[in-house]
Automatic annotation (TrEMBL):
PANTHER family: ANAEROBIC GLYCEROL-3-PHOSPHATE DEHYDROGENASE SUBUNIT B (PTHR42949:SF3)
BFD-like [2Fe-2S]-binding domain residues: 385-436
Name of the protein described by the UniProt record: FAD/NAD(P)-binding oxidoreductase
SUPFAM superfamilies for this protein: FAD/NAD(P)-binding domain
Residue span, FAD/NAD(P)-binding domain: 5-316
Naturally occurring in which organism (per UniProt): Falsiroseomonas bella
Annotated Pfam families: Fer2_BFD, Pyr_redox_2
Keywords: Oxidoreductase
GO molecular function terms listed in the Swiss-Prot or TrEMBL record: oxidoreductase activity
Top-level lineage group: Bacteria
Length: 479
């Protein structure tokens, strides 16, 4: 069944909640689709029903956005995994664009297809983890993924945890672990003291964020947690699960070992561009924004008519900048649909444009800290698995490059790297860097063409009762 919405919003993080609220409050017919059971996104992830979570700054900010959304009149479709996108410009050559088509799998498993005249993508980011020996051992989990365990499940990743990688999430996760009862064995921060010092001026513009960061550091100092600046994890070791982690200064030198039963590690965040790639929008490589990003105008329009991107999916700028970006995208959609005239749009966009710019300064400094560090890719050993879905090692990738693969789609065809359930979300960054080293840069290495499904879905849920005999056989072409 199809529903002609004015605006569909994909993703109910801070950007998506604000976009849907803005568009619905101004009279548009809006649907917001989110795969989680509650709105909030990664940063404002709501606790499961029945969990009592003491209010903190994140909880209050999330609740304010949720309350505005509930009052806005936007239709919320929670637990809806969006796996297919179509329509819009994806029509046969020469045909006029049609409404966007959105295929989703709701919790009851009965697939739905919706239609919307404009589509705002607010899908956020994926975590970047550059492979190292032992990274596939049980007990090694993503730094950002650890926040999901802690927030959505109330589960500790381990009793004694090493926290490693880059960016503010390191200290946020370590402080949360301490509060929740884990021991933090050590923090291995890739950033140097100088990098943090250079980020300070941007952070001073957001005293609230700075105060929070200082409180995390104070909690670590009080608990005697060793914080190793400019250090990288070189191996996770153990039989059947992680038992210890080896850490080394990035400049070389003696490695230290820390016993632990979990390693939370993350090397930054990568904008989720699967949907804009499906629509063949223009992209550019922006290392300090997290990687490939869609080309956006000041109002978050992409190169495809009536398609918009807000939040970290358009380049990592953090949670504080996301709501203003969502409002800008919604206002642009209403302008393009003719709901707002030029003057009303110019007036309405002024405040979110300023808010976005201000918040993005601190976000950009943090994104810079989380940008991909080439030395980690150089250090990947030949026998280390890069694509864990398909079991492809660095050595196999190098062989494919020797054999003539010159960009990401060819690498995928030669090795199956990125063809598994994660569709390259986990291995794509490391694999692309390996290609880039041979062909002269990430722009040349390109990215895997956007393909459906956006998320793994069971075939029977999408096709229903299906038999091979049901496949229509086209008549033979006339000779
Ligand atoms: C795993 C993870 C944990 C993070 N934890 C923190 C944290 O604790 N603190 C912090 O400051 N920052 C955190 N970040 C960074 C933070 O997400 C962003 O800075 C900020 O939330 C960006 O907001 P957003 O609205 O752009 O995206 P997000 O908040 O990421 O929201 C995107 C939403 O889109 C939904 N979505 C994506 N694809 C689909 C689909 N196909 N179908 C249906 N729904 C979909 C997701 O479920 C998600 O709710 C985390 C990032 C990640 C990846």
């Amino acid at each position: 069944m199809t529903h002609p919405y004015d605006v569909a919003v994909l993703g109910a993080g801070p950007a998506g909640m604000a976009a849907a609220t803005e568009a619905a409050r101004r009279g548009a017919k809006v649907v917001l689709l989110e795969e989680s059971p509650a709105p909030g996104g990664q940063v404002y992830r709501a606790a499961p029903p029945g969990f009592v979570v003491p209010p903190d700054a994140d909880r209050r900010a999330g609740d304010a956005l949720r309350a505005a959304l509930a009052a806005s009149g936007a239709e919320l479709r929670l637990g809806h995994r969006v796996w297919g996108l179509g329509g819009g410009p994806l029509v046969r050559q020469g045909e006029a664009p049609v409404p966007f088509r959105i295929d989703a799998l709701p919790p009851d498993g009965e697939p739905v297809t919706l239609e919307a005249r404009a589509l705002v993508l607010c899908a956020g980011t994926h975590e970047r983890i550059i492979p190292f020996p032992g990274w596939t051992l049980p007990g090694v989990i993503g730094l950002a993924a650890a926040t999901i365990l802690l927030k959505a499940q109330g589960v500790l990743p381990g009793r004694r945890v090493v926290v490693a990688g880059a960016g503010p999430l390191l200290y946020a996760v370590a402080a949360k672990l301490l509060k929740a009862g884990s021991e933090v064995a050590a923090i291995a921060d890739l950033a140097t003291r100088g990098e943090w010092a250079r980020a300070m001026p941007a952070l001073l513009a957001r005293p609230d964020l700075l105060a929070r960061g200082l409180a995390w550091r104070a909690a670590l100092a009080t608990n005697g947690v060793p914080v190793l600046q400019a250090h990288a994890v070189i191996a996770a070791e153990g039989v059947g699960a992680v038992e210890r982690v080896r850490v080394q200064p990035i400049s070389g030198g003696a490695a230290e070992s820390f016993d632990c039963d979990a390693l939370c590690i993350g090397h930054g965040l990568v904008p989720a561009t699967e949907a804009t790639r499906v629509f063949r929008a223009a992209h550019r490589y922006a290392r300090e924004s997290g990687g490939w990003v869609p080309v956006l105008d000041a109002d978050r329009r992409v190169s495809v008519p009536l398609l918009y991107v807000a939040g970290d999916g358009g380049g990592v700028r953090g949670a504080a900048a996301a709501p203003a970006a969502g409002r800008l995208a919604a206002l642009a959609a209403l302008r393009d649909l003719g709901v707002l005239d030029g003057r009303a749009h110019a007036r309405a966009r002024r405040r979110p444009a300023l808010e976005q710019w201000r918040a993005a300064q601190a976000g950009q400094a943090m994104a810079r800290m989380m940008a991909l560090r080439p030395a980690l890719v150089d250090a990947i050993a030949p026998e280390t698995v890069v694509c864990r879905c398909e079991g492809v090692t660095r050595a196999e990738i190098e062989t494919a490059l020797d054999d003539g693969a010159t960009e990401m789609n060819q690498l995928k065809q030669f090795t199956r790297c990125g063809m598994g359930p994660c569709q390259g979300r986990l291995c794509g960054e490391a694999a692309a860097e390996l290609v880039a080293r041979r062909v002269g840069g990430r722009e040349r290495a390109g990215f895997a063409t956007g393909r459906l499904p956006l998320r793994p879905v069971p075939m029977e849920a999408v096709l229903g009762e299906f038999d091979y005999a049901d496949i229509p056989v086209p008549a033979p072409a006339p000779l």
